[in-house]
Amino acid sequence: MENNNIFAKTHLVTPQEPPAITTDNLQVYYGDNHAMHDASLSFPEHQITALIGASGSGKSTYLRSLNRMNDDLATVKGKIMYHGIDINASDVNVYEIRRHIGMVFQLPNPFAKSIRENLTFALKAYGIKKKSELDERVETSLKEAALWDEVKDNLNRSALSLSGGQAQRLCIARSLAIKQDVLLLDEPASALDPISTAKIEATLLKLVKKYTIIIVTHNMQQASRISKYTAFFHLGHVLEFDTTSHIFQEPQVPVTRDYVLGNFG
Ligand SMILES: Nc1ncnc2c1ncn2[C@@H]1O[C@H](COP(=O)(O)OP(=O)(O)OP(=O)(O)O)[C@@H](O)[C@H]1O
Fold it and tell me: How confident is residue 62, by pLDDT bands cut at 50, 70 and 90?
């Protein structure tokens, strides 16, 4: 009956650093499918945390809940605390949440607009109209996302003409332009070549000085290279959360050990 005991052994540390976001007993249901069980985690400010685990273990489900992207798809129970506010409460404005907590998806999704408009679209919706401020936000966000040098000569060209890696950095820049402070990234480099992947990783390592980053990845080397903390998901449960070095060098839970050694998944 080993299967019944898999979820009994967990190892979940609470990082010393102050949290940017925490979840308390987060549960997600797609109809009758209880896809996420009791996820209680704390994501430290200005650190990269990786979410790892086999396909279907609940990583994206959990990540999407953090900025209420599951609202129309699932029932999400439990608390999601962000600066002392439970952002999972029904009376919280989800657009306001997404002003602070942004999402970058696996496949880059630039709008069919110019590079500049991709960055100014949300700013204008938030009431920023002054050209000098818009220009400043465009330049700063593109520089922070390490894209400025490649696009500065023609910001009016279509964002659809960018390469996959450039388009993904533009999507990161979109978050930076509106000064979101938590970036949720769902396998942002899995569709990219190794050079584009390296650029994204280098960008994230710079951004973490100012932003809190939570990244889903199937790439163990990537998690090791860039994250300070790692959470291991298994069949809708978080079984282990610790520093990335502990997770990869001395995992405490047998299922984590099997996963990081490549014995399944
Ligand atoms: N929109 C949805 N509607 C119904 N069920 C869903 C939906 N999205 C995910 N699920 C279910 O929730 C469970 C967890 O899926 P999820 O996509 O979160 O896993 P994952 O670990 O991110 O997988 P992957 O690594 O393949 O992206 C699975 O059983 C999946 O079928």
Answer: very high
**What pLDDT sits at residue 1?**
44
| ipTM confidence score | 0.98
Helix (H) or strand (E) holding 176: helix 164-177
CA of 56 to the centre of ligand 1 (A): 5
Q: pLDDT-derived band of residue 15, with 50, 70 and 90 as boundaries? A: very high
Does the Cβ of 217 fall within 6 Å of ligand 1? no
Structure tokens given for 147: 């894209």
CATH of domain 11-260: 3.40.50.300
What are the tens digits of pLDDT across the range 212-253? Answer: 999 999 999 999 999 999 999 999 999 999 999 999 999 999
Residue 31 clears pLDDT 70, i.e. is over it: yes
Q: Is 61 in the pocket of ligand 1 (CB under 6 A)?
A: yes
Q: How far apart are CA 88 and CA 108, in angstroms?
A: 27
In the reported structure, the alpha carbon of residue 30 is separated from the centroid of ligand 1 by a whole-number distance in angstroms of 9
Structural element, H or E, at residue 181: none
Report the separation in Å between the CA atom of 58 and the middle of ligand 1, taken as the mean of its atom positions.
6
pLDDT of amino acid 134: 97
- CA–centroid distance, 237 to ligand 1, in Å, is 13
User: Would residue 53 be called left, alpha or beta, if left means φ above 0 and alpha means ψ between -120 and 50 degrees?
Assistant: left
CB contact at 8 A, 163 and 103: no
Q: Which of 60, 70, 185, 216 to mutate to test the pocket of ligand 1 (most atoms within 8 A of CB)?
A: 60
Question: What does the block give as tokens for 127?
Answer: 């009431």
Would you say the CB of residue 170 lies under 6 angstroms from ligand 1? no
Decide the pairing of beta strands 229-234 and 48-53: parallel
> Where exactly are the structural domains of the chain?
11-260
